[in-house]
Amino acid sequence: MDPGVIKSYLPLYRDALLLTLRIGWQGVLLAFIIxxxxxxxxxxxxxxxxxxxxxxxxxxxxxxLLVQLFFLYFALPKIGIRLSPEFCGxxxxxxxxxxxxxxxxxxxxxxxxxxxxESAESLGMNRLQAFRYVILxxxxxxxxxxxxxxTIFLLKETSVFSTISLMDLMFTAKDLIGMYAKTIECxxxxxxxYLIMLxxxxxxxxxxxxxxxxxxxxx
Amino acid sequence: MDxxxxxxxxxEKAYDEHGVIHDLNLVVEKGEVIVIIGPSxxxxxxxxxxxxxxxxxxxxxxxxxxxxxxRDARNISAMRQKIGMVFQSYDLFPHxxxxxxxxxxxxxxxxxxxxxxxxxxxxxxxxxxxxxRRDDYxxxxxxxxxxxxxIVRALSMHPEILLLxxxxxxxxxxxxREVLDVVLTLARSGIxxxxxxHEMSFAQAIADRVIFLENGxxxxxxxxPAKFFTxxxxxxxxxxxxxxxxxx
Lengths: 219, 248
Ligand SMILES: Nc1ncnc2c1ncn2[C@@H]1O[C@H](COP(=O)(O)OP(=O)(O)OP(=O)(O)O)[C@@H](O)[C@H]1O
Ligand SMILES: [Mg+2]
Fold this sequence. Notes:
The complex is a heterodimer of chains A (219) and B (248).
Chain A: H1 3-43, H2 47-61, H3 65-75, H4 85-110, H5 114-122, H6 127-157, H7 169-180, H8 183-217
Helix pairs in contact in A: 1-2, 1-4, 1-7, 1-8, 2-4, 3-4, 4-6, 5-6, 6-8, 7-8
Chain B: E1 4-15, E2 18-29, E3 33-37, H1 44-51, E4 59-64, E5 67-68, H2 76-81, E6 83-86, H3 98-108, H4 114-127, H5 143-155, E7 161-165, H6 173-188, E8 192-196, H7 200-206, E9 209-214, E10 217-222, H8 225-230, H9 235-242
Parallel strand pairs in B: 3-8, 3-9, 6-7, 7-8
Antiparallel strand pairs in B: 1-2, 1-4, 4-5, 9-10
The complex binds adenosine-5'-triphosphate and magnesium ion.
Magnesium ion binds next to helix 1 of chain B.
């Protein structure tokens, strides 16, 4: 290990981290929005849309992100839709993540006992009010650990961005190794930078999970 | 006699092909306390759930103040506000405090001001001896306390009729009393109630009318509870009541 080399690479890694984070969080945010809309469509049994949503979820959960990105980046231009690499990255991550978030959120909803819905309705709430004030807050709370696990999964998946020439962490490491062959330094930095990005989310995840368990069974 | 609040006319209820309630008729008058008893699976819960339109019915109709109660009707929210219900299993909203459990529907559904809803909630909580628990979460309460809060929550909508489905069945014996006492007080205050219970001495004490249900039909009906519980007329009721006594 050569500390001088590491020091000189730091700014490149920092820039790559910022790019990865930017695209990553845009993707995660998009995933939340898509997931929420999907689940709402399923829950309220919106005719046609519901079937499309189910198809979407299965499609994106059962194909690799790499293939999805290739579609967005290499196939769409053939039919005249040209997207920037960064936009492809966020969109691909959002579409993949949306399917996972939807599944997590749906199982959170399914775990709320039917009697909660019935009590709300028997108090005169309509379906929307029952969802908004009674079902949703409980489902979100119980889905938080799953949401965070999905977030970590998605941020890790950003490592395939390098294939559509986005200068993310993975790309930077591969590029530097290719040019200067400082393999150990480059890979060590890669691990450290992924940890910098993901450890806080993991720690938040276990904290939230403990809190929830306490809320359920604790005093 | 047109003191009728609730009219159940020839209702039929089946789950898929499995018929549960058959041609059931019942008229409930204002201020009346009716106790419904019968063996497990005879359709007591189903009947209450139909009245509240938590279940569809396949035939007949249910009228409250002469207005049909129907699951998918536009006025169903308004109708349900007139029908309070407390279930056997604890059904408080676990993410809300006692006070918020009670005031949620008055504020969101009836558009009352928070101040007004909270004042009433606190007064009602005081009546059931739980004023000091207003800021607790349901998980911090005993089963009996939860059921008393559930009763208050139903009352806070000012229902015209209260449906109670075995509200003490899941409670430890020492908590049954505190809940039944609250129900008895309500009965004396003149609120109309339909009560499903397995507490026979309570049933006898509180009922203006007893209905014995079997296989989704009314087998025996009596306006003299003391007589019904000591010498019922039908053999089926006699047999049913015997299972609640321990004789040697
Ligand atoms: N959701 C459902 N789907 C199918 N069958 C049901 C459903 N709910 C109840 N049943 C059936 O309907 C019949 C009546 O049930 P119900 O719960 O009304 O009985 P009950 O008189 O309240 O009994 P218990 O004293 O045990 O509470 C039973 O045979 C039950 O199996
Ligand atoms: Mg029952």
